[in-house]
Design brief:
The chain has two domains: 206 residues, no CATH class; 134 residues, Heat Shock Protein 90 (2-Layer Sandwich), CATH 3.30.565.10. The chain is of the alpha+beta class and 415 residues long. 67% of the residues lie in helices and 11% in strands.
């Protein structure tokens, strides 16, 4: 469930609206445009003098203030409003400076920005209409600058008309190229984002299906572990009943040992079907519950056995959990039956576990007399020793054994 939620969150974050991209572009454009416009308006009046300023300066200053206001409110205004307002301001700058300075106005190149911005929110047809209005305004202002009389017989009028016409044609061509480039770029990005959106939707559908399949398999595996645990509980119950009818202590002890070995396996399956992660068991909980069951089962003399756990392995998978559980079962049983057979002041079992880089390390110790399983001459002790050695070999463990006035087995096995 957690992995699915994380994937959906990543897909939501990955969805990038095309309007957000354009909005970011326009905000950056506003910032840099504001800086350039400020420089263009302020520098001509430096150094400051008392000479009267032109009407065009005040008009430009008003436009600059409007541009600053739009920038300050950029996060509260819609994309279409911001672009439309910027186009109006650029158009005002363009016409005002063109009217004052004619073809020599530096702001004439601003006309290129009109189709660049217009194509972001308007259609191609609307952009052409806006650009046509700008060019007609350009030619209309040009008429003011042409030499009178307005007659083709006047060479100055004819040359000026040709110059303004060529300039208008060049501006139109440049604006057309800019508009087409931006249009195809927008179209390509929009197609890409739509494709990504479609892929995201397909991924979400697939993720939903996979999540459902995983949940179904998880429920099925939990049911399997539950059934295995119940079947093992039936077997251990039958053995327990049989032990009550055994003719001698040796038979009863043998059956009790087999019962506890089955319970150690059953406990693994019980923890697995109760866990959210059905591939591993909570190791400290497992060791604590298993040790309590065995101590209650074999400690018939009423000895107060202190169990000390220092477990730093959070989880074990089932391939390690079952053999380690049976090993601990044999070791605890050995301590209760043989290690604590003599009277002493206190009885203590210590189990420590440590997770290393590539290995697990487990140490079992008691403070008993140090009798090992091999010292028991009966078949029960021999079976326990053989079982421990076989299980250590199964998990590819290396081990050391110390039995001087205690029993301590340390084993280390790869993850």
């Amino acid at each position: 469930m957690g992995n699915s939620t994380t994937l959906n969150s990543e897909l939501d974050n990955f969805r990038v609206s095309f309007d957000k991209i354009k909005n970011l572009l326009v905000n950056r454009f506003l910032l840099f445009g504001l800086i350039v416009a400020f420089i263009a308006v302020i520098i001509p009046i430096l150094p400051i003098n008392t000479a009267p300023l032109s009407e065009g300066f005040y008009f430009d200053f008003i436009n600059l203030g409007a541009l600053l206001t739009i920038y300050l409110l950029k996060n509260k205004l819609s994309l279409s409003f911001k672009i439309s307002f910027i186009i109006v301001i650029i158009y005002s700058f363009f016409i005002t400076n063109l009217f004052q300075e004619g073809l020599g106005a530096l702001s004439n190149s601003l006309i290129i920005l009109v189709p660049f911005l217009s194509i972001q929110i308007f259609s191609v047809r609307q952009t052409i209409g806006i650009h046509a209005l700008a060019i007609l305004s350009f030619l209309g202002v040009g008429k003011v600058h042409l030499e009178k009389p307005y007659s083709f017989g006047n060479p100055e009028f004819t040359n000026g008309l040709i110059e303004w016409g060529i300039y208008a044609l060049l501006l139109s061509l440049v604006c057309l190229v800019v508009a087409l480039l931006v249009y195809y770029l927008n179209d390509s990005m929009l197609r890409l984002i739509n494709r990504i959106e479609l892929n995201n939707q397909q991924l979400i559908k697939q993720d939903t299906i996979l999540k459902q399949n995983i949940e179904e398999k998880k429920v099925l595996l939990q049911e399997i572990h539950h059934r295995v645990k119940n079947n093992l509980a039936v077997v251990s119950g039958l053995l327990d009943l049989q032990s009550n009818r055994a003719p001698d202590d040796f038979s009863r002890t043998t059956l009790k040992l087999s019962t506890n070995r089955i319970l150690s396996i059953s406990k693994v399956h019980e923890l697995l079907y109760q866990s959210e992660d059905i591939s591993r068991i909570h190791f400290k909980q497992y060791v604590k519950e298993l040790a309590d069951i065995i101590i209650d089962s074999f400690n018939k003399t009423g000895k107060e056995v202190k169990l000390s756990l220092d477990v730093h392995i959070p989880y074990l998978n089932i391939n390690h959990g079952v053999p380690v559980g049976i090993i601990l079962n044999e070791l605890i049983t050995n301590s209760l039956k043989h290690g604590f057979s003599q009277h002493q002041e206190n009885y203590q079992i210590t189990i420590s576990a440590l997770e290393e880089m590539d290995h697990y390390s487990i140490t079992y110790a008691d403070n008993g007399s140090g009798i090992t399983l091999s010292e028991s001459e009966n078949s029960v002790g021999g079976l326990g020793k053989t079982l421990i050695e076989s299980l250590l070999q199964q998990i590819e463990a290396t081990y050391t054994l110390n039995t001087e006035n205690k029993y301590q087995l340390s084993f280390r096995f790869p993850k």
